[in-house]
Fold this sequence. Notes:
Layout: E1 8-13, E2 17-18, E3 26-31, E4 37-52, E5 59-63, E6 72-75, E7 85-87, E8 99-100, E9 105-111, E10 119-131
Antiparallel strand pairs: 1-10, 2-10, 3-9, 4-7, 4-8, 4-10, 5-6, 5-9
Amino acid sequence: xxxYDNPRTCTYSFPLVDFGAGxxxxxxxxxxxxxHVGRIVDVGISVQETTxxxxxxxHIQLGTAADPDAYAKLNIxxxxxxxxxxxxxxxxDAIIAADVPADTDIVxxxxxxxxxxxxxxxxxxxxxxxxx
Length: 132
């Protein structure tokens, strides 16, 4: 069983994503240190262009290839202002299952919103504590 009193905290930042461009989704992968279990601490986006979503919100999911939102799904609110951070403090039920088994690939999926007049760019990030 891992000890949770001394985690190795890692922040993963990804390239700028245009959540209004219709070019995605965008996929990234994370894998922790060998033999370490993970606990998802935060999922967020540093907003570089104010978000405008009409039908469906843009979102960031953490999961597996078979279950894209097994761990988290952050729904990015429309009208999130530029030069702000939108994270799990704003979407408080975004983390679905915080614990990640050891030696598991985490798939990060960034999906644009849908509808007319879309906008919104930002730098997605994930914070995970890893335990031996």
